[in-house]
């Protein structure tokens, strides 16, 4: 393993010099995106489609919030979707233009990027203090924050998160787009931020950072690397949220029920600080976070979270029950974290994860025809996903989706001194200009595990090649052949095979990896499995009934697949011995003319489901699908049906009756329902989040009614509450019920209580506000979930 610690300070110096080129300006050991040319593959298709998709967006509408906030006349109106977060997609789009210009050389992307920068510069100049942002009513917010009123951030939709996208867009326009004006604008904005928080105490910062702030620590670490000015490093560290940092830097996992993509960018920032300073606590924090999430909190596709939150271990089964599975943004940031850690220490484990998440999640989140982006990828058997429309959806995962498909060449190859790392098996050409080496990788991976590396040009004949031995290849089943010698024989999975020799033009290395089927179990619930062929998650289409909202409109919750859920007992289960199933699949041949399609052996599936075909999950679109399968013996399946079938029926019946619902104590569901509170607190009990309010406080939220009038509130409580817990439940200010929870049931389980809403409360109402108010000397709650259901 090559030691990179000694080169850290040198690399920082190089990053500060004008001699540095492309991504090496910030990201050591990486090649410029333009130096890696994708050849025919699903990645090339996705990249090219994404360019055309991006060019359909109305740039003036994306710029509107910045002009409006600067007091300039917008040239077009803002997009109405996610209007309270106005401006965030504009920052992502600027990044995407720079990234796709770098990766494809398409001048149309550069023209868009330069136009945006010119307009944004007008805004920054007009503001006069370095500020540049689209945060709605941002001027008033930032004035209050500077005065120390940090609680104001809770009255806005994650304003620091929003602003981070502007910082990142300017940085990327310089980093990938080589626009020097963008760097000047980035530093001006960085100076504004330094001055804004300068007088805030550590306690005020910590209070403010409980609100989602994206990767603000990351961009300030970048500003430090660009300039060498330690003010920016200090600021990056001030954005290290201690609630998370203090835990993970001591290798303690405190992520249960936290909003997942609030936390992942924090860890990306820890990694960037560690990369520049090699401070041990930052290195530990970044690496432990990655290890925890990638190994203990991710699903088979490499993604994480349900309802945008990390479930507790007691609640891991909810992945199989919820519509809202892993969020694309999370995986975008986990790839950043894995790539950054690999730059610091080239361990194959990071690239094993990177490959898995890249193929199975990121590649799968773009529709291969119209280019729409996916927000949630449900893991529930026989559910589906929905896609964005150009100039309609302004979801966070639209923003990261804009960037994702231009960065496929980023980690295929990396370098360190005279060492060239072959990390991913993707058809591509590399031009290592500094060494005078050109290399082509010809491969049909993942159709087969074969790849050929050809040296097309060589000036530095002493270069080492290090080829990843993936962890999914069984020991002894990888060959790396050159001139009759197998270089892989003394290596094990999860390592790099080193070829150190004198190179000549025309040299070829033949790689052959066994692509075998294997199983991954759902953590804590081994009865649910995913099927893999090599690193590729294999799914199956299971129908296209009720694909409600398949291509989303601009509804606030259009990113959620609202179509009906299918009973787990009506989805295909794999009945039989797993070892026999895998043996049968490994002996099977692909279906005719479809090299990655395999029939599921009929002996393992009930006849009523017909013939099922396994195919790469990244190919499955516009369909319900199987990612996880119930897998057990026939006797075990019968026992499960006896025990759970009626419970499952009741859950689905309730789901059909539910008009709207909010999970209390979770950031995103509360934000989605315009949550408000005073003297309120939240926590987790028995794996479920809750909310209550103390004497003199309250909490409230909005629920949509769909203009229905025969509705009730169904509220979930814990059955063993004690103390003074008398409170009122109000609907639009009218008393609905008074509840007394203290000693009501004295049973350690959850109870659902229904409260019928008078029709007069609902007449002509599209939304109602539900409010919980404690009686004098009492607390309101704990409340776990509230549903608005049809009677």
Automatic annotation (TrEMBL):
Glycoside hydrolase GH146 substrate-binding domain span: 653-789
SUPFAM superfamilies: Six-hairpin glycosidases
Keywords: Coiled coil, Signal
Domain Non-reducing end beta-L-arabinofuranosidase-like GH127 middle: 420-515
GO biological process: carbohydrate metabolic process
Region of interest: Disordered: 667-687
Pfam family, any one: Glyco_hydro127M
Record's protein name: Uncharacterized protein
Limits of the Non-reducing end beta-L-arabinofuranosidase-like GH127 catalytic domain: 35-410
Signal peptide range: 1-22
Superkingdom, taxonomy of origin: Bacteria
Domain DUF4986 per the UniProt entry, residue ranges: 543-629
Basic and acidic residues bias locations: 670-681
Coiled coil ranges: 630-657
